[in-house]
Each structure stands twice: as structure tokens, then as C-alpha cells.
What we know:
CATH class of the largest domain: Alpha Beta
Protein name: Similar to Saccharomyces cerevisiae YGR177C ATF2 Alcohol acetyltransferase, may play a role in steroid detoxification
CATH superfamily of the largest domain: Nonribosomal peptide synthetase, condensation domain
Pfam family, one: AATase
Shape: globular
Strand order of the largest sheet: 9-15-14-12-10-11
Organism: Maudiozyma saulgeensis
Structural class: alpha+beta
InterPro entries: Alcohol_O-acetyltransferase, Atf2/Sli1-like
Radius of gyration: 23 Å
Number of domains: 2
Number of strands: 15
GO molecular function, one term: N-acetyltransferase activity
CATH topology of the largest domain: Chloramphenicol Acetyltransferase
Largest sheet: 6 strands, mixed
CATH architecture of the largest domain: 2-Layer Sandwich
Strand content: 15-25%
Distance between the termini: 58 Å
Amino acid sequence: MDETKPLLSETDTKVLRGHKRHLGHLENYFALLQRQELYGNFSISCKLNHGITYVDLARGLRSIVLANPIMMHTLVSATNKDSSWDELSNYYRSSEYLDKPWPEHDFMEVVDQLSLKDVVINEQTNLYGDLLTKLQNQFQKDNGVITEKLCDILSQVRIPVYQRNKPNWRILCLTDDPNNNDSQSFDTLVYISNHCSADAMTGINLFQDIVSEINKPDTKTIIEGESQESLQIWDYERDYLKCSKLPLPITERVNYVPSILTFIWLIITTIVNGIFNYKSPCEDTQRITESEPQVCYQSFVRFTQDEVSRIKNKINKQKCTMTALMQTALCVTLKEHGIFNNRSMNEITFDITVPNNTRKGLPDSLVDEQYKYGSNVGGLHYSYLISSFKDSQFWSLARYYNGVFKSADYLVGLGSIMLGFITQNKNIDAMIADSYLNKKRGGIILSNVGVINTTTSSEEDTLQIEDMLFMQNLGVLNFSYSVNIVTTTSGGMNLCMSAVEGAVASQADFTALGKELHAKIMNKCD
């Protein structure tokens, strides 16, 4: 469908049916990262024990999107609803938009049509032709393994927003067979998201649900006789009665908004940390563009199931969590590697953000029914003394970090932009862009999604997940390093680390740092 075509006249009907609503405050935050070109993408890769076809994928997706319509939403401008993204991209960065507050956010709306070709990036050669060729060639060159080189290419994929009939995510289907064609199968899938109403658990849950749906013996083909490229997943007029309502924003279920005193304390600590936090030698942050991809180095650190078991035994004895261990190992290894050797005299602290999953604050039944998918996150942003990063104090440091995590407020940072007097009087896009752009980069964003059970519940389940990776570059977020961790019961633990050019000397240097990190962790856990 032509992206410039006006919205259907039935749009108001969608509101009444629960298939269109305003973005919540957190959803708007991730949307503005795209409007202002501040963030690229994150991705979750999934290695299967055998290949699946496009038909299988469409069968799996249909049940998922009907139960979770947030997976087939698109963004709709509240002020220029008939404009294409080419027009909107200029509008959202113009004084007309940025010079005044917009207390009511844009809309999310369930798309009218969704076919496999709308979500499978392999079928969108008009947008991704060159990148797709690079991805497929690299995967085959690496013998069917997701590597740092492929991750670097993935980071260049941009998922357009405000597209009339396309959601904010894609799936890349990969095979290491150079003779594969569309009628054959793929055993590696990659979920790629621009972060709009999606987080890492969204991608993980998607793959688990796809596998579960495909394993059901009664799952039927979508539309008989259609070509695989155009397999239809959803038609609004045909299927709306079967579709669940969009869930309320997570910010209407969980109270992110801090008290005024907490907000004042946040402002004070932010100012102080701005003076004393480490600033890496990276270039100042700039908007990300497709023409000039952000240069980053990648390093994967993999732990076998046996190594994970040894690590778990040790952290249980030391009374700390995996995230606390990883943060300790990162800080000590960075210091021993010489990262802080040339810092200024006033740079005495190192800032780390640890995202968390706010679904944990909801009843399990509500999560399963409505919040498996979506951007349901918070985050702790904390600064630590660089002088404390001592190998001799490793486990006491890990226990200290563990205590910080347990007592922390993970909602105050994002909640501060949701305060009424701010949303009513400030342009949130402008405020966030000003705080992120043309700034020095600091520390780490450390995301650990935990242990994912990939063991199937039935011997009859023939399709299984063997391994997963969680990959992410930083965009304009004011960090120098991104560390993303996922552990599966079948594949062990994978750390996918990214460093912005300038944070370390070179790719070879960052690869060496990854090896040092692995050695540090296993040395402490043996």
C-alpha cells in the first residue's frame, strides 16, 4: 500500500474496538528516539535445531499477533496523520513541532493488512538489498554462525517508523546453504526492532511462541494457494473480531512517576555525576543516519553450559547475582586493561545503567495475557568509584553491587520525564534530544535478560531453540559500551559487547578485552 495514502475512515472505529490508542509515556520515549534519530536497533537471534519454511513462520505468527495486537501496530501522527514519513521526519525536527509541548502523544494503531513480506526482511530487497546481500554472504562465510562481523552489519539496519501498513520490527531468515531458495528452510532467525513498543523480552518471547505454535499439530496453513512471499497473516476487516484489544500502556499499570523530592535528588545527582563521571575519548554524540553508520567494535564472549553451571555455583556461595558478577568483572577488567589510564583528574566515577523488566511488578496471569510483548522496561543509572575496581576486592564488590541492585529505584530515571508539569510544559522530543546530542560518552549499559528455558515440555515437540544472542549498538545513548547477556538452558550464556569507536584502540583490542573478561570470570569461579 502507498505510504502516503490517507488513513481509512474507519480509524475511529478502531479506537472503539480497542485497536487504536495514544502512546503511553514510555512508548512515546522510544518513539521519539526514532523521530529524532537517536537510536538504531536491537536484535535477538535464534538458532533452531532444524529449518522452518516461510509457511511455518506465517502459521506461527498468525496466532501470536491475534492474541498480541501490539505486535502489528504502527505509529500514526496525532498532528499530521496524512503525511508520509519523509514529510514527518522533517516536521518532527522542525521548530513548528519542537518549540511547544504536546501533552497528547501520537497514536499506535493496528495495521489493516499484514503479510509475511511485510515483516520478513529477505522479501524487502527494495529497502535492504545491499545489506541483505552482505548479511547472507557473511553468514555463509561464517559457516552458519552469528559472528561479530554479522552483528556489525545488523546494526546498520533501520526499521522505518510511521509506515502505513508495516510494524516496527522485522525478521531476518538465514541459512548457510548457498543454494537455498524461498521454498527451502531456514534454521536461524533474527528479530530486529527499532525499540518502539518492544524490548529484548519481546524478541525472546516471540521466538518461544513461534516454536510453540509450529509444534502444535493442529496449526493450519494460512491461505491455501498463496505464494510463500505473500502469505497473509492478518486482514483487519476479516479478522478484527478474533483480535484482542491493545493492552493499556505499562505506565498505567506500574507507577513510574517519582515524588518531587525524588526528582529534585535526581537532578542534583545528575549534575554532580556529570562533573565527576568518566568521559571516554569517543567523538561527541551525533544523530545516526543511514548514510554514515555508527562505527562500533563487537566482541562476543561465550560460556558453555558447564561454565555457566560453575559460575552459578560460585555466585550462590558468594550470595550475589549473575548481573552483579558481570558488572564486577567488567569494571575490574576495564581498569586492568588500561581504559581509565588517561582520564582527567576529576573523572573519578564510572556510570553504569542496568535495565530491568517491569513486567515483574505485574501478576503472572496479566503478563501472559497482555504484556509478554511491548517496551516494558525501567533502568538503574548509577555511578561507582573507579578506585574501587580492584581484583583483590572482587567478591566484596560483587556483593556491594548486588545490594545496590536490590534497593534501587529502577523507575525514577524514565519516570522523571512523565511528571505532569514536564509533559504539560516541555517538548519531550526536544528535551531528550538536547540531553543526548553533542555530548561526551561515559560508561556502560549492561542488559541481562536472564535465563531462558529452551527445553521443550513434550517429547513430541520436534522444533527446539538451541541458542540465542542479544545484540545492540548504542546510537546516541551517552554510553561507550553496550553489554547484552542472554542465557539459554540449551546453549549456555552469551555476552554480546559493543564499543563505540574511540572507546578502545581497535577491533583487535576489543577482542582481546573480551578474552580477558572471560578469563577473569572463569578464574574467579573455578
